[in-house]
Structures are given as structure tokens and as C-alpha cells.
Amino acid sequence: NAGVTQTPKFQVLKTGQSMTLQCAQDMNHEYMSWYRQDPGMGLRLIHYSVGAGITDQGEVPNGYNVSRSTTEDFPLRLLSAAPSQTSVYFCASSYVPGSSYEQYFGPGTRLTVT
Amino acid sequence: GENVEQHPSTLSVQEGDSAVIKCTYSDSASNYFPWYKQELGKRPQLIIDIRSNVGEKKDQRIAVTLNKTAKHFSLHITETQPEDSAVYFCAAPAPNTDKLIFGTGTRLQVFP
What we know:
The complex is a heterodimer of chains A (114) and B (112). By secondary structure, chain A is mainly β. Chain A contains no helices and 11 strands.
């Protein structure tokens, strides 16, 4: 099993550009989530999903969209990139309820917005 | 909602000494408390977790204790080794949601 995979590993965007961070898992987990990691701020939840067709907001959802059309994939869209979105983004998956089971993290995407 | 505070933000110990990291949470209904370790440049990985029906759990050199009355839980690492150097995160669920809220992390450095 590949576990949780993320693409790309690195990305540089200009302010105002849009892009999609990809996340996929092959463990048949219903729960998937996106976190951003900033120095001194820990891991902050952006959006999460408890199954295909169901998404909800986390702690810091503004500026990001998600959708969940399949169990395997959970892409994160940046609508209009801002320098404040410079961060490392981690996708994670788990059994449901996701807040009560081990989170399996992907390798991360390092995003820089100039 | 849930608020998780973690202390200290940095911790330096000599190899062989013990290290203790403490987290407090705000919602008394929280019932699951994991700890994650993140080595430099790597992804976070679960190292130990505890549920609210027990007060302590051990796994070799690491242990987690839970005090529900005081709403805090701690990670204890004994006989520290250089490979324990990493950032450690605690977390707690926000009750009535499926959100897992993380603390801000503790950078542990173990000096030989």
C-alpha cells in the first residue's frame, strides 16, 4: 500500500494564482483532512471529510475549497493565493470518527506564495 | 470549541535524562488524546495515545498520563536518546464535531 500520497512536493505561486493540491489514500479510510503547518502554530485543520460527498470546515477554512467525490481522493483548492498561505500542507486519513483514531499523514506539500 | 495548549515550546535534555511535555485542553467531554512525533522534514506519526477511561499508558520508554479533573495530559520519555530529537504534538478532539485539534508543538533536543 502507498498509504497517503500528496502532489506536488513543492510549489511556488504568485499572488492571485489558483492551484489544487492533490491527496489520495489507498487504505479505504472514510475520514480525510487537510492541515497547514506554520512555525510556532502547530498543525491547524483547514477542512475535513467523513466520507464521499461530505465535507466540513476546520479551524482555518478561509481561502480554501475542498470536495470529496470519491473515497480515495480529497483535493484542496486555493482560490486566489496570498502570501499568508505560504505554509506546509499535510493531508491525513483515518477511520471514522477521525478525531478518535490514528491519523495517517501524507509527506506534505511545501507552498510558497510570492 | 476545543482549545489545546502545549508546553514547553522547546526542551533540551542530556542523553539519558527524562523529558516531560504537558498539554491542557478546554472541553471536559474530550475523550481521546494522541501524541505525534515529527522528525525534521518528515510527516507527523502517532507514537502513543490514551482514551479517557484510563489514567496512564506505557510503551517501552514512552508513557502518557491523563488527569481528567485538571484537564491535562502529559508525555513522558525516559532514558532519552539522540533519535528522540523531534517536534512532538499533542491533540484532542473537539466534542460534537469530528475535528482533531493539535497543540502548537514542542521541539525536543537530546544532546549526547
